[in-house]
Design brief:
The chain is an alpha+beta fold. Among the domains are: 72 residues, Resuscitation-promoting factor rpfb (Resuscitation-promoting factor rpfb fold), CATH 2.20.230.10; 117 residues, Beta Barrel (Barwin-like endoglucanases), CATH 2.40.40. The chain contains five helices and 21 strands. The strands form five sheets. It has a six-stranded mixed beta barrel. A four-stranded mixed beta sheet has the order 2-1-4-3, with helices on one face. A four-stranded mixed beta sheet has the order 6-5-8-7, covered by helices on one side. Strand 5 and strand 6 form a beta hairpin. The longest helix is centred in the first third of the chain and has 29 residues. The protein is rod-shaped.
Amino acid sequence: MEEHPLKKTWKFRVLVALVAAVVVSLGAYILQDSKMEVTINLDNEVKVLASKADTVEDFLEENNIVLEKGTYIDVALGAEIENKMTIRVIRPKPYTIEADKVEIDVKSIHYSVGEILAENNIVLGDKDFTSPRMEDHISPGGKISLFRVEEVIEAYDQPIPFENIVNKNHSMDIGTSKTIQDGEDGLKTIYVRKEFVDGRLLSAETIGEEVALEPVSKIVEKGTKDIIVTSRGDTRYRKALTMSATAYDLSYESCRKNPGDPGYGITASGTKARPGVVAVDPRVIPLGTKLYIQSLDGSKDYGFAIAEDTGGAIKGNKVDLFYEDSNIVNRFGRRKVKVYVLND
């Protein structure tokens, strides 16, 4: 007996439903058992891994990737894993920073010196610098040296030497001089810019100066007159000395010798004592020097003379004039005279 058409249709529908159910169940099973493809960029090392993890955090645990403090990750830990997704992880690396004479160990996810310092809140002054440079990259475990630069401006007082001005005076004797104005040093302030690196002087540069006190020049007049008018006409001399003059003769009172005594009437030069011979201190006027003795009290000049004798009391700026007349010697006393040292 042939089966009724309606019954055949019902069986077909049941069969389709069973097949569909089996397909759905099988698909769900296959999907559940499949693995996602995930790219992990760990410290710039890229790997492609298969994973059955549901979240990023599960994926990291699945692959034994530990996130220490300060680690950078570009997706949330709770984000669901998706096929073909990429996860970037940068873990902090150790570095040593030497600053202000102290070394500190730090960690950073960065590689450039500037970023490592910034991450650790280390601020540089305008002139501070580092080694390696701020823009350089440094390998993990490397050392960054920070150099503090300090600039100061210091002021120093410095004397300004006074100038010596010498003017010729044709009315003054040659070899003499007169101070017209005393000199005084001035004062100026020097400004120096100094640069110190970690307390050590690196450079010093003078940037300016300021005169606080002007110097006062010393003014001296020097004599140029070298001619004296005498009974022989114009006579040249090379030096003029104002000296204290006394007089002596051949008396015992003057020379402590009597006629007949050894050396009586003989000068220290071995010559005979005579008018025109004078006794001097050889340290002031060498023996044998030709002289002209000028009176300064209005009396007659002694005139031309020659230094040939010495005396125990004639020391320094003194001269003893020989006279034959004891009356003149007794009246002479002590006088100021000008002694001209004549040219040879």
